[in-house]
Specification:
By secondary structure, the protein is of the alpha+beta class. The chain has one domain: Cytochrome P450 (Cytochrome p450, Orthogonal Bundle). It is 45% helix and 10% strand. The protein is built from 15 helices and eleven strands.
Length: 420
């Protein structure tokens, strides 16, 4: 996202963390090698560092595994309702991060009993998804996508496969048609609202997403079907249309972009790391191990906004004031040297924070459904195109210019053409 002109002087704003070595979460060098920034911030500030968001809005970046776990486990101290933020008077109406920071009647911003109620409705809706049927549907989608380029011997996977597969799977789960201009527009608008590029309007894009899902909710109230949207509409808790719309946005946004980047980063690992590139087909290292390692080392969601301090509190040696914003540094926490001695990072367990932690973690069984989509996408591609190789040198691959999502801009590959 581009950084706009400062709306105020961050060094004089009362109670703000800026002015004490705060670093802007932007810039090409950070986007391509964020681990270097995390290492530098840890060295200078420790587990909690002062940073500047778009427009030089101050916040705290939680870098430590233990500190991030503490924040996410203590909602009574670090809450999700963004209306607590002490910087709202400095936030312009067109602020790029507004779509996912501005308060909405969404499960994301609820707390306490209301959060448990809303998250429970989503969980029950997702629990009815048959994982075997989802795997079958994803395999069918994958075969269709691969068949479209299999005869050419080369393709760009991000646009032709990686983003398309979870998009089709998610909209199908929610009861939308797999094709059509409005579906394609919805997915593009979700991307813009999550991570706008130069000249794109995330606030307007978020509005269009809401409009399309309001239409879907009305359709499902009139004619419920065997889909997630219908289960939300007909749930006995009786959520309002706007609550359902906002929760559907959360479900679709959390499923589509992060899952696509999980697929992308796993394919990159398989195609560039000799441990996997040489051994996956031989059975010594599995696709599952690659998927898990990516969640540790190249997690699809690098950073997430966030939590807001309920009262003044100490965290990681920092004085956090009531209303301060804390950015969850998921990628930094997953590679915290305190949990990986001697700079070694591995994938022996699933204690990563890639699905967050505490009551506001991704609701069960969302991580399992994401795993089904990602695993099916990777395995089907390798089965159909067993000699798949990068079309460029690994160092030529470029990461998307984002501090929030971790994924490649392009993933060009070559393979032996396959006739249908």
């Amino acid at each position: 996202m581009s950084t706009s002109s400062p709306a105020f002087d961050p060094t004089t704003a009362p109670g703000c963390p800026a002015g004490r070595g705060a670093v802007r979460l932007s810039g090409t060098s950070y986007q391509q090698t964020p681990t270097e920034l995390y290492r530098s911030l840890r060295s200078e500030h420790g587990a909690v560092a002062p940073v500047l968001l778009d427009g030089d809005i101050p916040a705290w970046l939680v870098l430590g595994y233990a500190e991030l776990s503490y924040v996410t486990e203590h909602d009574e101290l670090f809450a999700r309702d963004s209306r607590r933020w002490n910087q709202w008077e400095n936030i312009p109406a067109d602020w790029p991060l507004l779509p996912y920071v501005g308060y909405q009647p969404s499960v994301l911003f609820t707390e306490g009993d209301e959060h448990r109620r809303r998250a429970g409705v989503i969980t029950e809706a997702l629990e009815t998804v048959d994982q075997f049927e989802l795997a079958r549907d994803c395999r069918h989608i994958a075969d269709q996508l691969i068949s479209a380029f299999a005869g050419s011997g080369r393709t760009e996977l991000m646009s032709q496969y990686v983003h398309a597969l979870p998009m089709r799977a998610v909209v199908q789960l929610c009861g939308m048609p797999l094709s059509g201009d409005d579906t394609a527009q919805l997915v593009d608008d979700l991307r813009i609202s999550l991570d706008a590029g130069e000249g794109e309007d995330p606030v307007a894009a978020y509005g269009r997403v809401g409009d399309r899902l309001r239409q879907l909710v009305q359709e499902r109230r009139a004619a419920p079907g065997p889909d997630v949207a219908s289960r939300l509409v007909t749930h006995p808790e009786g959520l309002t249309d706007e609550q359902i719309v906002q929760d559907l946005i959360s479900v679709i946004a959390a499923a589509q972009q992060p899952t696509a980047n999980w697929i992308c980063n796993t394919l990159r690992l398989l195609l560039t790391d000799e441990r996997f590139a040489l051994n996956v087909s031989g059975g010594r290292l599995s696709v599952g191990e690659a998927l898990n390692e990516v969640l540790w080392l190249d997690t699809p969601t690098q950073n997430f906004i966030g939590r807001w301090a309920v009262r003044d509190i100490q965290l990681g040696g920092r004085h956090i004031r009531a209303g301060d914003c804390l950015v969850l540094g998921i990628a930094a926490a997953n590679t915290d040297p305190e949990i990986w001695p001697e700079s070694y990072v591995g994938a022996e367990n699933a204690a990563h924070l890639s699905f967050s932690n505490g009551e506001h973690r991704c609701p069960y069984p969302a991580p399992l459904l994401a795993d089904v989509m990602a695993r099916t996408a990777v395995e089907t591609l390798l089965e159909r195109l067993p000699d798949l190789m990068l079309a460029v040198e690994p160092e030529a691959l470029r990461w998307r210019p984002s501090v929030w999502m971790r994924g490649l801009s392009e993933l060009p590959v070559v393979f032996s053409p396959v006739t249908q």
